[in-house]
Amino acid sequence: MKTPRATSKQLSSIEKAKPIKCGTFGATSLQQRYLATGDFGGNLNIWNLEAPEIPVYSVKGHKEIINSIDGVGGLGIGEGAPEIVTGSRDGTVKVWDPRQKDTPVANMEPVQGESKRDCWTVAFGNAYNQEERVVCAGYDNGDIKLFDLKTMSLRWETNIKNGVCSVEFDRKDVNMNKLVATSLEGKFHVFDMRTQHPTKGFASVSEKAQKSTIWQVRHLPQNRDIFMTSGGAGSLHLWKYEYPAQRSKKDSEGAEMGVAGSVSLLQNVTLSTQPISSLDWSPDKKGLCVCGAFDQTVRVLIVTKLNKV
Amino acid sequence: MRCARAGLARFYSSLKNHTLDSPWQCCQVSVPPFLFEAILYAPIDDTNSTAKIGNGIIFFTLYKKEVAMWDYLTLSNANKEKLQYLRENAVLKSHEKAKEETEAKKVTKQEHKKYTLEATMKLEEAERKRIEDLKEKERLKVMKELELWRKEQKDSEKQKRVQKEEELCQEAEQLKEKKKEKMNKAAIPNEGTSETRLKPTKGCGSFSMFSENLKEERLPAPRSAATIKINFTPRVFPTALRESRVAEEEEWLRKQAEARRTINADLSELEDLKEEEKNPDWLKDKGNKMFATGNYLAAVNAYNLAVRLNNKLPLLYLNRAACHLKLRNLHKAIEDSSKALELLTPPVPDNENARVKAYVRRGTAFCQLELFTEGLQDYEAALKIDPKNKTIEKDAEKIRHLIQGTPQDS
User: Fold this and answer.
1) How large is the ipTM?
2) Is B350 at the interface with chain A, CB within 8 A?
3) Is residue A7 domain-resident?
4) Is some CB atom of chain A closer than 8 A to the CB atom of B235?
5) Where are the beta strands (DSSP E) in A29-177?
């Protein structure tokens, strides 16, 4: 991994009233390029960056900070309506359609009287046709819940014993294949999502990468078996997943059960002493990625020789 | 003996281990148990002289320091003192020489070490430089590729834009014609909605609007809203779950539970109670359940027992006050609410809810006893803690009216 020596130029700086926690381009078309953001006050806004004074869409979606946001249906990836999902400290996960004002199209909230847990991360997946959609949410008490938006039900849940910092499907727009969930204490789990066992759920393999929190995971857009994790010690790790010989087998009662593969570390680098909290790959140039860290720097990196992996 | 140059000494002795000591004037050979010593006539050159030992023969090859004729080989007529002096001198000098030699060896060794160290450092430097050069080359290559790719992107984008403009122009033309036809048929043009929604940004803005319109007709309608109710894996602590902290947390919880259990466990009546009935928390839960089903007397009993076990839990008094209210034991309700408030000091945001309830219950009891001013005081205290609660406000208003109403009557 290398850092190109060129310097970047800031094109513009826009400031809004409340601090912004997260953002995504996932639900807009390539022409519109609207940025959907979630801020510390629980507001979801969609901005036209050419005219940022007034948001194109705005709603006070949550009572507390929106920790995580994801979009699907835009950027020419996937099918179906554009939708945005937000997860908040108030324990709810809400799915929004930018064409419908004020009310979410889906709301995953705790039962009456249940004490709420922080939702730390959300991700879309399984958007391979116009009806199917799945939302995965990770919480601070280690819960991972998978919601099916077509049947509006909870499809699967599990607990990985550490607060879940980041979840991502390897591809949003295919039949759900793999899900990576990263957590506190330096662990991450890779779930094989093709085979769901009625009681055991999905098969998984887990790996302890480092001692500090793994803040984010991102799959390479050009190869869905390679992903990068960013850590609390300022390091980036590049991993490759290998499928097992047989992805599913029958258990003693004849039900189909998934088989998890293995994960191997390809490369790692330490860029900073502070956590790298956010990272993303370029969809156009293979290996180009950008990461932001707590030391107030944005770094652009290139990973070479990915063709030979 | 008279000799011309070197001396030959023949000796027959058992030669086992021998130490040779040949300083400048003394010649000593020690072959235990024999010792050969010869104080020579004049100093000899130590470094070049040698002695070969073997076969029962010692063969000395001694070189004179100054070329001269010796009268004798040895100083046989030397007195004892001189001999002694010479011997000591010899020993000293030999020691000194040995020292110097070791010193010299040390110095050379150090120099050798230095040299090797420098050599290895140079090698490592070279290796590092080689790796750095490789990296640098890779970097330059990648940068060039990136530049090329960027250029390509720009060029292709330009081309695409030009193409699209042409296409859109054609499409717009077609659509305009279609719309003209429609307008001729229907009276109301329907363009208003689409144009106001998207702000045209550049010259081609209006064209992209039309293509967006076409696309939107292909998207499905927004989903019908629904809610999914979820349950969380229970966790007492508000902080996130970490595996490394689980042991600590369990320990803390266990200690808390123990601390709340029987404080005065030596009450004789408690001997025949079951284990769980001695736990104030369990009793409180039981009391709550009975309150919910309407069995207020039984709830009071449960709370009574719990209080006997641990009289420091404010919630017990609070809930018992609610039971008494239902049973119309108003004085007891007031007592219990007051006790609960006492235990709920210091007033912090955590026990806000409990305090509001205590005030409201006491206020209700006062009002039912027709002590409206005291009741109003309590309601206002409750309102101070939780100003947004509408029921409390309404009730406070009612009481105020009652107060204003009664003085007129009496």
Assistant:
1) 0.79
2) no
3) no
4) yes
5) 34-39, 43-48, 57-60, 66-72, 83-88, 93-96, 106-110, 119-125, 134-139, 143-148, 153-159, 164-169
- Measured between beta carbons, the chain A residues lying within 8 angstroms of B217 are none
**Residue A133: CATH number of its domain:** 2.130.10.10
CA distance B269 to chain A (A): 37
Q: Is the minimum CB–CB distance between A44 and chain B shorter than 8 Å? A: no
Nearest to A284 among B153, B219, B228 (CB): B153
When pLDDT is cut at 50, 70 and 90, the band that residue B23 belongs to is: very low
Domain total of chain A: 1
Give pLDDT, residue B397. Answer: 86
pLDDT at residue B344 greater than cutoff 80: yes
Mean pLDDT score across all residues of chain B: 76
Looking at CA atoms only, how far is residue B150 from chain A in angstroms? 9
Q: Is residue A68 one of the residues assigned to a domain?
A: yes
Does A146 fall in a domain?
Answer: yes
Q: Is the pLDDT of residue B21 over 50?
A: no
| Residue A252 resides in a domain | no
Q: Which of A186-190, B134-138, B196-200 has the lowest mean pLDDT?
A: B196-200
**Amino acid identity for residue A122 in this structure:** V
Residue-range definition of the domain harbouring residue A29 = 20-176
Which residues of chain A carry a pLDDT beneath 70?
1-6
Residue B143 contacts A where some CB pair is shorter than 8 Å: yes
Question: Range with the lowest mean pLDDT among A133-137, A229-233, B77-81, B225-229?
Answer: B77-81
Picking from A50, A114, A149, the nearest residue to B223 by CB comes out as: A149
Which residues make Cβ contacts (< 8 Å) with residue A16, sequence separation at least 6? A39, A45
**Which one, of A163, A65, A160, A213, lies nearest residue B240 by Cα?**
A163
What are the tokens at A7? 């310097």
Residues of A in contact with B153 (CB under 8 A): 284
Distance of alpha carbon B106 from alpha carbon A36, whole angstroms:
76
Question: Which of B161 and B48 is assigned the larger pLDDT?
Answer: B161
A95, A97, A185 ranked by CB distance to B243: nearest = A185
Residue closest to A86 by CA, chosen among A60, A67, A110? A67
Cβ contacts (< 8 Å) between B137 and chain A: which residues?
Answer: none
Whole-number pLDDT of residue A139 = 92
Q: How many CB pairs under 8 A join A and B?
A: 123
Per-residue pLDDT band for B195 (boundaries 50, 70, 90) equals very low
> Parallel, antiparallel, or unpaired for β B26-31 and B19-21?
antiparallel
Minimal Cβ distance to A81: which of B201, B219, B242:
B219
Residue A126 has what DSSP assignment?
Answer: -
Q: Which amino acid is at A221?
A: P
Establish if B203 touches chain A: CB-CB under 8 angstroms: no
